[in-house]
Amino acid sequence: MNYRNLTRNIYSVLIYRLLIIMILFSLARIGFFIYNRDLLSPATFSQFITMMRGGLLFDLSAVLYLNAFFILMSIVPFDIRYSGIWQTVIKYYYLIANGFALALNGADFVYFRFALKRATSEVFKSFGNEQNLGRLGFKFIIDYWQVTLFTLILISLMVYLYGRVRCEKPLSKRRFIYFGVNFALVFVVLGLMIGGMRGGFKHSTRPINISNAARFANTPDNVGIVLNTPFSIIRTSNKRVKTMPDYAFFDKNAVADIYTTLYMPDTTKKFKPMNVVVLILESFGKEYIGELNRDLDEGRYAGYTPFLDSIIREGLTFDVSIANGRKSIDAIPSILASVPSLGVPYIISPYSNNRINGIADLLRRKGYNTAFFHGAANGSMGFDSFTRIAGFERYFGLNEFNNREYYDGMWGIWDEPFLQFFADSLNSFKQPFLASVFTLSSHHPFKVPEQYTGKFKKGPSPILETIGYTDYALRKFFSRISDKPWFNNTLFVITADHANEPVHSEYSNDYGNYSVPIVFYAPGSTLHGERNVVAQQIDIMPTILRYLNYDNEFVAFGNDLFDDSYQHFVFNTANGNYHLYMGDYLLIMEGESVSAMYNYKTDKMLTKNILGTVPEIQKEMEIRVKAVMQVYSYRLKYNKMTPGADQLIAGQ
User: Fold this and answer.
1) What does the angle CA 633 – CA 241 – CA 443 come to, to the nearest 5 degrees?
2) Closest CA to 213 of 62, 76, 77
3) How confident is the model at residue 335, as a pLDDT?
4) Which of 11, 111, 579, 651 is paired with 64 by a 20 to 30 Å CA distance?
5) pLDDT score of 648 more than 50
């Protein structure tokens, strides 16, 4: 095939036309940076190149979504694709779809200056009730003429470059081979499209979303440089965060008296620069831990975690401890930033690039070194991106461990060697430090390393053997660090991302399915015993900060578990409903109506609906649910998740 035939080949032309949009998206990114540079954090040339390079991943995904019809119509393995009508139809689809995408990118130059984040699908709801959109749009075009002109130049380039190359029908005498090859290429192209849309082919990597952009940005404020607007809208168009209406709280004080998320510093106490280590155990439901179930099986239950039991006996735990979600991606924001996931996991919600008070960000301001460890492939679950947003300086994953000898063949590094790696890393860190590790071996397919076959107690569920293995890995981790000089100046927090398969009927309900351990352990301290307090994952961050006497304001959706001056409560969503635990009671709310209420302490199977029998408590809990959802909705929607944004007037 000569050069002319190659350049007129329909696949070459297809690649050329997709590259046009990729290049124009990059030019739009540069324009976005220049136009909004006064709102963005400083970046070196190297950091800017990293953001540009990372942006290609999101551009490719957006371009493939936008041009899926164009691509499919171009690779149809029949000669009709060369006809004039066919080519005209796909040409105008290409120009309209991509022209609209470039216009969205341009409009976001200005929107970003008000929202401080890329537009998501939420923007259409925000302007959905405007009656004068036409007039507003025209004024926008005139007032921001520089952006309008830049966008028109990009669209003009697209139109001009599209027509520079045309495909031609090849002459082929071997028609059978010709159609066979073209038919096979359909599946090749489809496979490549799926990989490009997802952002990769690895089974352990979720399809990329807007939170993944933090992986390439030098600061959370610069995430908008990495993203493009069509991608942000596409990836959030079917992500709905459960919200409630603004009910009856028209005075900000009425809401604040019931539920406040703004923590003020106690200036009478001196900050304690203790090290903080947060261990997040994969699928470690509370049910599996003997020390937290002393009454189970009529007092005969031993559990599967002998070492963790010994830590619990030396530390402090809580009568009731609940996860704020059922997935790992629910847990990370809850534990490390006190941001729950209500309905849609926060990490993949339209608000995942909001400015937040992650515990790492707050402690970095006090001189802490911060690091997050997860033995899976870098990028798995989007943890590397979110922990960057939460303020962690360093991320240690499969790449940093850098030894495939200990790869489990499915998810990442076995817990024992990875926790030893974690221990050795802690020993090298300068104090004070904040470090968190997320284990992974107690995950389906629930295998243990070959050398430990038969070593750990099995039970009615296959996960239980791996729980024993991870508990053993924890024992070796603590053995490795217990004689180090920093150990006695460290607060350890041990929890789980979520529960897993229940073994006992007492845990086969909405209460048991969300029960996880929350343990505070500080060697030589007074943190001992069990507090008769309901606790949740989002309580961990404010409790740590208050224990350290953190002396700055911060926003957290959870409670300080050591503060007895107010009524503690827990909230989450289950089966599409809102759940609130307070005292001995669980209130379930469907939308705006209360549907059930249980005394989960005495009715462990949640079989007796006592709705209406304790009206005063029920009313108090109902008001609290509404206040929580109003504050949560407001702070997410308006990007008010840091101090200085406590004006919670309904309808604002």
Assistant:
1) 125
2) 62
3) 98
4) 111
5) no
State mean pLDDT over 496-515: 91
What residue spans define the domains of the chain? 3-236, 252-637
CB 437 within 8 A of CB 395: no
> What would the pLDDT profile of 376-417 be if each residue is shown by its tens digit?
999 888 899 899 999 999 999 999 999 999 999 888 999 999
CATH code for the domain defined by 252-637: 3.40.720.10
Would you call 151 exposed, middle or buried from its count of C-beta atoms within 10 A (0-12, 13-18, 19+)?
A: buried
Three-state SS string over 471-530 comes to HHHHHHHHHHHCCCCCHHHEEEEEEECCCCCCCCHHHCCCCHHHECCEEEECCCCCCCEE
pLDDT in tens, 198-209: 887 765 556 888
Structure tokens at 562: 């050591």
Most confident of 152-156, 382-386, 562-566: 152-156
Residue 601 CA, chain-centre distance (Å), reads 32
Contacts of 447 (CB under 8 A, 6+ apart): 408, 410, 466
191: burial class by Cβ within 10 Å (0-12, 13-18, 19+)? exposed
- Between CA 328 and CA 392 the distance in angstroms is 18
How far apart, in whole angstroms, are the C-alpha atoms of residue 556 and residue 538?
Answer: 8
Residue 178: pLDDT above 80? no
Contact between 368 and 254 (Cβ < 8 Å): no
Report which DSSP code applies to 582: E
Secondary structure of residue 376 in the 3-state scheme: strand
The length of the chain is 652
Residues 543, 352: contact at Cβ < 8 Å?
no
Contact 273, 367 (CB under 8 A): yes
Q: For the chain, how big is the Rg over CA atoms in Å?
A: 27
**pTM score of the predicted model:** 0.81
Contact 448, 469 (CB under 8 A): yes
